[in-house]
Amino acid sequence: VGVRKVLGAGRRQLTGQFILEAQASAWLGLLLAGLLTLLVLPLANSLLDKTYTAAQLLRPNTLLAALVVTVLAGLAAGIYPAVGFSRLSSDRMLKGSRAGLAQKTGARRLLLLFQFAISIALIIATLSIGRQISYMKDRPLGFAKTQQLVLPVRAWTGIEARAETLQNEFGRQAAVSGAAFSSSLPGREMSTFGTRLLEEDWNRSRVFQYLFCDFAFIGQYRIAMAAGRPFRRDMGSDAAACLVNRAAVRALGLASPQAALGHLLVGGNDDNRMQIIGVSEDFHYRGLQAEVEPLVMELLTSPFGKDFSRHDFLTLGVETARAREALAAVEATWRRLSPQLPFEYFFLDDDFNRQYRAEERIGKLSGALTVIGIAIACLGLLGMMTFSAQRRRKEMAIRKVVGASVPQIAARLNREFFWLLLAANLLAWPLAYFAVDNWLQGFANRAAINPLLFAAAALAALLLALLTISLQTLKAARANPVESLRHE
């Protein structure tokens, strides 16, 4: 640039040169970005649970946006150095002086500060999301979620008439500990009906969830009772009875689970009158994102159950150590009893955890953004470190001549970046806290924000920064001072 200025190049020509070089870099970056996008498209579809195709990415509006961003990026990248170098005289540039340009590192430091602050905030967010997902998956739900093998039996011919026979056939397998039919499952959609106490007016009806099940369901799922009793096969009156959970007792305005026993409920229509014979503890039949809602459980064989439900699922208890044996025995029984239907099954815990897929996608996306953010920040830090070492090479040479050791020089070079990382943490922590806290507000059951996650994010950022600049720092600290001092 100095030679061109000596030969008569004006500011406009120099600016054009910088912009042309920057545009070439920007267009090359666009080409590489396009190739990289095609390579990571399957991974992006997996993270976002989408089915984007390459054709969708090549739509006119997408291409136009990419071209505009490329041109603007090239202009910005070219104008900035052009303005800076045009202010320097030819002789100072030919001597290698950076006075007036090299000193203006405030903008670089500010950009690097924000890059690391965003990266640290993303690390905290990713760790917090993972902690919340683990909390939801591991927290006791109030029913037996594990060791439950579920068979979808809705398609079986005459399932209602064959229910007891099928229950006995599957339940007597050596590796199966029990069998229970139900119209739905925890984690699945249930029927809803307007429900009120018999003595209340119809306009006092509340919308309750309804689950239709058999006599074995409460025991099979190990649901605790707060008052009363579960359904019993030897009690013929249970065909006109129901169980409710504690949430239903509260919604009905009854004083306690014990006080709810004996009350008559009207649900669905005026003909469906059920006596409350038991109150279960609140169990999370839906994901932990929401509070437990009022639930009514009726028998599949009740008059209302026969009209509005079916034997859709058969849940079999299996021992973990004998899961393979149980699965083989159940499949053999299925093929013997219904050879025309394909064998279908799933485990309840896997099915229940599907409710957390949205949170898992957010966690994966946050993790991917964290990796990208850290990579960009580390590249910026490496560039800043290289620039700083080059700018301060004479200072480091003098210090080395007067007796400074390599570790002392390296520590001095790293000091300014340590303070920058500290400032990035001070900026990132409150932002991350409020963002994570706001996200957790959407969960009725949430894990507390752990301060250790903030410390872990700070430590991770520090280690990554040290790994990024250590080689460049040692190279600058070990440089021969004679080579540096002989430059004007």
Give the helix/strand layout.
Blueprint: H1 2-6, H2 11-48, H3 54-57, H4 60-86, H5 90-94, H6 106-138, E1 148-152, H7 159-171, E2 176-182, E3 191-197, E4 206-213, H8 217-220, E5 225-228, E6 241-245, H9 246-251, H10 257-260, E7 264-267, E8 273-280, E9 295-299, H11 303-308, E10 313-318, H12 323-337, E11 346-347, H13 348-352, H14 357-391, H15 393-401, H16 406-440, H17 451-477, H18 481-485
Parallel strand pairs: 4-9, 6-8
Antiparallel strand pairs: 1-10, 1-11, 2-10, 3-4, 3-7, 5-8, 6-9, 7-8
Shape: elongated
- Beta fraction: 5-15%
DSSP summary, beta strand count:
11
* Global structural class: alpha+beta
**Count of DSSP helices?**
18
Please give the largest β-sheet: 6 strands, mixed, barrel
N-C termini distance: 18 Å
Residue windows where pLDDT falls under 50 for at least 5 positions: 99-103
- The helix-strand sequence is HHHHHHEHEEEHEEHHEEEHEHEHHHHHH
Number of domains: 3
Mean residue pLDDT? 86
- Mind telling me the C-alpha Rg? 34 Å
Numbering strands along the chain, what is their spatial order in the largest sheet?
3-4-9-6-8-7
The share of residues in helices is 55-70%
Structural description of this entry:
The chain is of the alpha+beta class and 488 residues long. The chain folds into 3 domains: 1-104, no CATH class; 105-140 and 356-488, no CATH class; 148-355, no CATH class. Helix content is 57%, strand content 12%. The chain contains 18 helices and 11 strands. The protein has helices spanning 2-6, 11-48, 54-57, 60-86, 90-94, 106-138, 159-171, 217-220, 246-251, 257-260, 303-308, 323-337, 348-352, 357-391, 393-401, 406-440, 451-477, 481-485, and strands spanning 148-152, 176-182, 191-197, 206-213, 225-228, 241-245, 264-267, 273-280, 295-299, 313-318, 346-347. The strands form 2 sheets. Strands 3-4-9-6-8-7 form a 6-stranded mixed beta barrel. The chain has a 4-stranded antiparallel β-sheet with strand order 2-10-1-11. Helix 6 (106-138) packs antiparallel against helix 14, helix 6 packs antiparallel against helix 17 (451-477) and helix 16 packs antiparallel against helix 17. The longest helix is centred in the N-terminal third of the chain and has 38 residues, at 11-48. The chain starts with a helix and ends with a helix. Residues 99-103 have low confidence and may be disordered.
